[in-house]
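As promised in the previous annual report, we have extended the structural survey to additional targets. Below is the entry for Coenzyme F390 synthetase.
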Amino acid sequence: MTSFNFLSIAQDARRVTRGTPEMLAARQMERLNELVAFARAFSPFYAEKYRGLPDILSDPRQLPPVTKPELMEHFDKVITDPAVRKADVQKYVADLDNLGKPFQGKYMVWTTSGTTGMPGIFLEDKNWDTVITAVNVLRIGGEWYNWGVIKGMMAAGGKSASVFAGNGHFFGVTMLERQRRSNRSRAQRIQLIPVTLPIAEIVQRLNDLQPAMFAGYASALGLLAQEQLEGRLRIHPAIVISSAEPLSVENRALIQQAFGVPPRNNYGCSEGGVMGYECRQGRMHLNADWVLFEPVDAAYQPVPAGQLSDRTLITNLANRVMPIIRYELGDRVSLAEEPCACGITLPVVNVEGRTDEILRFAAPEGKTIPILPLALWSVIKETPGVLRFQAIQTAPEQIEIRLEAKNAAEDEPTWERVFANTRAFFASQGLSQVTITRAAEAPMRDPKSGKFRNIWKK
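The corresponding structure token record, generated without further manual editing, is:
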């Protein structure tokens, strides 16, 4: 397998960033054909799936789409390295001590559930890592890290804090832990603050650290911005980065008011890595030279620019160990009809994003305590035995959980673990009085949007 060169990738990315549409299209088709040829040669799954198709492609639509359940069912045949087996990867991700460690010494592993509700395991090879790093340094570095941000980072000794779910091999968390493991100095300067902690404890940790870079889920950043405005949080970050959830106009303005800097936003997933980044105009540009991005309708037909898609197909043009080719992503998106005024010619995308909600419960002494959706999600989803779940707040002190276990024979023990973990989580938030019940119905998609929501209130 040919290794990608960091400097060559960065130089080419610089040319494509403000290049012509023809230049971008040429890169896409050249890289797609290289990827498909590799997948046919080393992945039994794709060799069979592409049997009878042309050797050289002129359009990605010549290839059939694939889904997460399909890739997970045929995992061992999808992987191009015969030394990698699903059973071994599952053992690896079951141990949280492996966060940030390469599997078999050479592959990073991410897990996800996504909006389909189906769990997924994805491997990253060194080629993909080289591309992500080179593209991020060039594009995100150039757009976000001006001299003011660099000075702020230097003055704070490079300290950073990320408020994420730390109890699973999620894409952002694994990337962060890998940085922390790279040397002892980084481990002290780069902190992961679990989003499952009570807000007061998160505030205390941030006040103690005084990070120059502050990242987190959009909902967490919004709540912490309110803490800053009310005087309990007292930090002065040089840069604030939002991820994983939609960043609304209102939340964006609140964060900027609280911290004095505009929040930066990126768009990524376990299957495609960092797929997009915001420019200084606040518009999301796709790294389309390395991620082929196709907004489609329910019949997998392309939708025109300006129209919201039913779903999206992505192709990761860099990863070789686990080819992701015309993979169905649940995201509903639309491509901008006009080019961005910033001068970057990469496509601009608008992402509908997650629809989970912050829950607010009545606590003793008349208090109302907010529960971040991705905090509750991480507690329930990472409980052993859980395949899918939905948590719905039905009253100020009540929550109802729809549950599907991975193994029907383990349904009751799985529910007992979910109940115990959820009860302990609410107790840690000062909400011991919240009633937790199991719904009679199984998890289901929203009948209107077709999306699989996890957490909301009636």
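The first strand starts at residue 108 and ends at 112. The mean pLDDT is 92. These points will be discussed at the next consortium meeting with the crystallography subgroup.
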